[in-house]
Amino acid sequence: MIPNAKITDAVVKEHGLTADEYALLLKIMDREPTLAELGIFSVMWSEHCSYKSSRVWLKTFPVSGPKVLQGPGENAGAVDIGDGLAAVFKIESHNHPSFIEPYQGAATGVGGILRDVFTMGARPIANLNALRFGDPSHPKTKHLVSGVVAGIGGYGNCIGVPTVAGETNFHPSYNGNILVNAMTVGLARADRIFKAAARGPGNRVLYVGAKTGRDGIHGATMASAEFTEESEAKRPTVQVGDPFTEKLLLEACLELMAEDAIVAIQDMGAAGLTSSSVEMAARGGLGIELDLDRVPVRETGMTAYEIMLSESQERMLLVVKPGAETIAERIFAKWELDCADIGVVTETGHLVVSKNGVVEIDIPVAPLVDQAPLYRRPYVASPKRVEIKAANVKVVDPVHALKRLMGTPDQASKRWIWDQYDHLVGNDTIQTPGGDAAVVRVRDTRKALAMVVDCTPRYCVADPKTGGMQAVAETWRNLTAVGAEPIAITDNLNFGNPERPEIMGQIVGCVEGMSEACRALDYPVISGNVSLYNETNGQAIMPTPVVGGVGLLDEYTKTVGIGLRQPGQALVLLGETKGWLGASIYLRDIAGWEEGAPPPVDLAAERRNGDLVRRLIREGKVLACHDLSDGGLLVAVAEMALAGGVGARLDASPAGIPAAGWWFGEDQARYLVAAASAEPILAAATAAGVPARVVGTTEADSLTLAGSGAISLDELRGIHEGWLPGYMS
Amino acid sequence: MRAAVVSFPGSNRERDIVMALERASGKKPVVVWHGEAEIPDCDLIVLPGGFSYGDYLRAGAMAAHSPAMKELKRKAAQGVPVLGVCNGFQILTEAGLLPGALMRNASLKFVCRQVHLRVEESQSLFTNAYEKGQVIRVPVAHADGNYTADPETLKHMEDRGLVAFRYVTADGRTDPATNPNGSIHAIAGIFNETKTVLGLMPHPEDATDPDAGGMDGFGMFKSLVDALH
Questions:
Q1: How many CB pairs under 8 A join A and B?
Q2: CATH number for the B3-228 domain, one of 3.40.50.880, 3.30.460.80, 3.40.50.300, 2.60.120.200?
């Protein structure tokens, strides 16, 4: 061991470890650690890597099902989609770095999630993202939107993976902590999924990809603490992305995977070489020995501490079969990437790292991972909110209200964003951004995958359990609305400081609701990510458990979009409308009242209604379909009209439901479908026990509400398309 | 028609154009790695879209100096037709096979959307299946598609009918609002002097499938197959 810098209480604190955690470290090590060892414990036990506050709750998610090939715990989850193929997907946050350095933060978020997916042996076929920004009038918001969107585009466009869907919200609770959640979906052969467990003592450990620099050191630790005014000084901890290198790494890895060469593969993401080597060793129950003098570096004089904790991008760690080193060297040389033999798998169960011939790190892997702190933090349930009666809500002329809603930051078209993303490369995107879910074909088959990200934070803050259920149900509904069979989800839990019982209560409530919905809908969780400490100066974000859903279409030509394309079609509303306005967009943006309990989620109705809609789509009885969500019925009709260029004449609101509740209520489990004839839809609905009602007929060029006036599609389009470009210019 | 597609590190739309060529000709094109000094005998050489060398230095600048490009220039000089799409167009201007340059989009942003193009010249082996003046709908996806050239070059190209495609409205009019990148004269694609080299920013290859993007781009591949068999 090298002579050591004195590990003082201040040094321990700087590494984010509590006194108790440090005591545990000493017990495991049975001696004072070196600084490099302390660094390793610090990142491995950070919230970001260890999930120490959320792990007990994550275990309550349903994670299995007949189609699940790989659940949580690997680089990404995988589900069987038939034809010997698997869909591999995961979502991940890059919130803290994106706030500090929006372009690079967002870009490397995309790079990281792409690597998680192709590490599994899957070729990425689509990217999605869920973005949350602060109030548009906040001085930083515009700059953050501009940088994040450019960063996501800059990375995804260059690597040639289409960015096909997403969502963007604005709310003051994100003023100091934006959310950038990126999801990747890939395709792999079901019998060729690569994992990250080291096997075979004596097998060589290869480092491939970009060189290691000093960027991103302690990124994982940064992502595990609250922000303060000084956080901007942490800009050097944000990594810098190079999508060109990632494209080469992707092609080289897939080429190597086609050979019989790889035992285990793990990307170097958060905590870089540390987490990749520790996790590989831990999963295999083995040890790993690394010689840092052989690690390709791009800066001189890097210490063991720096090399082990660097979060330089576009790097992978491999364990290869005996003799396969030369195959790897040949392939990586072709792609002009570094490939270095930096170590060996051992039987010792220890991570042993040397630099300049001196062992600087010697940590028993099993206790480092298995004895990582695990907290069942105290929590208090969020106070119940009162139910708001639609009859008590301010009445505004519905056409007037629609005009205002269609131009609000949350409801306005996000075309300005997706115009900057190559959503077409690959020529398999058959439902493009702007609909309920994207649909991307599965090459060489008639199948397609539908995919979506969603969350309604205002419901989650109003009632975490209902909000959690709703986030899952809404993605299920979105997939259903394009005709797909929902298969599984990935989730990104974004919350504030879990050491505060009220925040912990939000986490517990949301997870409980999500689990319940996943169980009821046979829609398991196969991967995910947790981002906590999204607070600045004690102000937490709204609870934002983003759900990424993936579904399957057996015949891609059967999909339908949201656009109304022909006059004279019947518009049929499926599902029950009571006119729920609590926690709605209408209540917030028209009545100026951010209050009330959110709409209840009835999972049995959700399933019944969704199964009917999917069947009608597959039978070809439905020509367009849109689920009802933010803004309710009238916003849905307006979106359908703008998407297809054909308007509608809508009947007056029925007796017994206040007009605002009818037009803008956010009752769940509802769909609006367009059909050549209403009769077969109504008959099928009656047979299935699903409430159904004809609400109008399509007609050219305008939206007319019986008894309340009309608006031309041109005017509506101007409002809907105008806000974001106007704001950003 | 035997086609060869040259692939560079960072190319990412080579599969799209391989599929389009295959749909039109019934034959799988050969894909040639940029480091190869030889391009096999073929009737057409294609430079696909993407970000060769990550667009470092300038889009297309580094690819223009690769070994395969030396060979491509030699074959182009012998009259072998060359098609460059998007990044391929950028490479062709950097290599001097086409005049002018492609600058950063006027918006300074990447742009991906469906655009309308007017076919300015149907007397070429790339466009003979279209009518002159026909309007087609194909996508663009680029950050550096803002075409420019000096006034004499422009005048020469306009006089000689070397402008192949222009960005227009759905009803065929040029309009600054429908020009996605600020290109001078709304130029979307140009020929060389002999009309054996075509470079264009839009992606006709992503409009050759009735289920994904429509068929408006198919005419280019059909033209090539008709002319080159």
A1: 85
A2: 3.40.50.880
